[in-house]
Structures are given as C-alpha cells and as structure tokens.
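input
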Amino acid sequence: TDVYLIPAMGGMPTRLTHHGMGDRVVGWHPDGKRILYASSMKSGRQRYNQFYYEPVSGGLPERLPVPYAEFGAISPDGNTLAFEPISRSFRTWKRYRGGMAPDIWFFDLRKQTSQNITDNPANDSHPMWHGRTMYFLSDRGPDERHNIWAYNMDSGAFRQVTHFREFDIHFPAIGPS
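output
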C-alpha cells in the first residue's frame, strides 16, 4: 500500500512512496505542497506508525519528530500537529477505558514540544482543524458514544458538537466551513 497523487479531473496517478511497508494518507499540509502520511517503515514495530511528509513533486520522505502517530492534522498556520500516538479506530471494542485509550496531543513543530490535550479515560481521536478550533471524536459524553467535540485553542474549553445517543460516529472529515 503506497501513496499516490491522482488529478481531481482524471488522469494518470503519480506514485509518491516506494517502500515495502504500508502507508496511509492522513491529510495535506496547509501549504498544499506536502502530504502527511502514516507508515511503520522506520518505527521499529510494524504495529505502530510514524508520520512523514511526502512532497507532491516527489522526493524523499521527511519523518516528523514524534515517536508514534496514527491519525492527525496540521494546524492551518502549519505550526501545530494535533495527533493521536495510538489508535483504536480499527478495533471492535466499544466504550473501552484503559491504557490503550487514545488521547490527542499537540506537538509544536517550531519549539519541538508536546502536550497531552485530552488527558482523560475516554477515547479521543481523529483531530481536525478549522481556524483556531480543533475538532475530534470522543466517547467522553454521558452516553459514551463517539460524537464530535471541539477544543478552543484560545480558551482551552471543550464542547460537545453532536449528540448521538444510539450510534457512534466513525472516520469524520472536515470541510472549509
């Protein structure tokens, strides 16, 4: 499994990664010149991934300086990586509370510092940015269902955005508005 760039209007795909380990596209860098992807090619453990940038023009991958990463997003200003070091997204356990419950961390790409933002027993995953708000999935609500939550970078406040009680949200995506 490798990363390919395919023109939106059709045409030949361009292969961007060329190694034996599986790669999973995570998203675009805000500059539009690099793709963020997860791979275990150098993690030392095939079960755990690390993040890499791959230039859309081709070239060698650049590993981001976080030890493990599964899902994440780069802030619109390109300075902060919101990521989850471990993931339970492909597991079938629901409402798990334990040591493998994922948290979302912020990594300052300039200062090379990190901070656990969602430090709690719930499962917090799939960060997405819109301006100075980081949206994510969490089962921290009273019904313990995966809903979309928001973290305000300026106030540090969390708020629940969706309120599904019977079913979980899986693999959300965010658009411009």
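quick obs: The mean pLDDT is 92.
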